[in-house]
Amino acid sequence: MDDRRLKAFAPLYVNIQFNHPDEITAASKRACARLADAGIPLGCQTVLLKGVNDDPAVMKRLMQQLLAIRVKPYYLHQGDLVKGTGHFRTTVACGLEIMAALRGHTSGMGVPQYMIDLPGGGGKVPLLPEYVIEKGQNEWYVQTFDKRIVVYPLPSPKETLPYTA
């Protein structure tokens, strides 16, 4: 690959698609290395597919292998409402479960945004597992990745935090 040709288009960012860790072959590793060595940041858009990658262990392995080949997991897409693909669709709850399983069990760099493309032109919207369990007047109750509930005290109206520049 001629680095000079690619540099003429800088900044250049490339998103690629891997949906299962078995797709990370010797050939795909070499291709990603060539792009990364040319200074091109790589991201990965993965589609959540029933029976392919709808398992937290499979998804964790994929995300960690992507990082190992210098590809940042970018989006995990909920399957679109496309005719003929219904057999690949999972529930949104499944996707949220996978996202919860990634958090705390792999590097934050390996946790993509979980996206759903809303019908009717609603656009892409990120979805997150619910970590705030309850909002009190003086504190919030937040669930950790390992399902513990921790009380997070809110600053009082009179409290001022020191500011340092």
Distance between the termini: 45 Å
The whole-angstrom Rg is 20 Å
Topology pattern, helix = H, strand = E? HEHEHEHEEEEE
Overall CATH class of the largest domain: Alpha Beta
Task: Provide a compact summary of the structure.
The protein has helices at residues 3-7, 26-37, 56-68, 92-102, and strands spanning 14-16, 42-47, 71-77, 113-118, 123-127, 132-135, 139-143, 149-153. It has 165 residues and is of the alpha/beta class. The strands form 2 sheets. Strands 1-2-3-4-5 form a 5-stranded mixed sheet, covered by helices on one side. Strands 6-7-8 form a 3-stranded antiparallel sheet, with no helix packed on it.
Can you tell me about this structure?
With about 160 residues, this protein is α/β, with parallel strands linked by helices. It folds into 2 domains: about 5-130, Alpha-Beta Barrel (TIM Barrel); about 130-165, no CATH class. The chain is built from 4 helices and 8 strands. Strand 7 and strand 8 (about 150-155) form a beta hairpin. Helix 3 crosses helix 4. It is globular. The N and C termini lie far apart (about 45 Å). The mean pLDDT is about 90.
Keywords:
165 residues; alpha/beta; TIM Barrel; 2 domains; five-stranded mixed β-sheet; 4 helices
Set out the fold topology.
Elements: H1 3-7, E1 14-16, H2 26-37, E2 42-47, H3 56-68, E3 71-77, H4 92-102, E4 113-118, E5 123-127, E6 132-135, E7 139-143, E8 149-153
Parallel strand pairs: 1-2, 2-3, 3-4
Antiparallel strand pairs: 4-5, 6-7, 7-8
Helix pairs in contact: 3-4
